[in-house]
Amino acid sequence: MKRIALLKERAAAPAGSSTTTGSHCPASGLWSPDRDPHTVLSFFEGHVFPAFQGVPTVWRRRTAGSLG
Questions:
Q1: What is the C-alpha separation between 29 and 17, in angstroms, rounded?
Q2: CA–CA distance from 41 to each of 3, 6, 7, 62 (Å)?
Q3: Torsions phi, psi of 8, nearest 5?
Q4: What is the pTM of this model?
Q5: Confidence at 10, pLDDT banded by 50, 70, 90
Q6: Where does the chain show beta strands of DSSP type E?
Q7: Residue 54 φ then ψ, to 5°
């Protein structure tokens, strides 16, 4: 059964935090692969991060304000 995250835990993934391919998304939001920071994708909490263009990568959390 999926555990319900507390509000403090959801805030634990601020903009700029990172995770790798194969990891579970710690918080819903916008994420960019290190290989192409101009690509921004939306992932939901719990989603498993995919490879980017067939290569394992590091994913970084973005905010709407940092996209410009």
A1: 12
A2: 25, 24, 23, 9
A3: -60, -40
A4: 0.73
A5: low
A6: 18-20, 29-33, 41-43, 58-62
A7: 80, 5
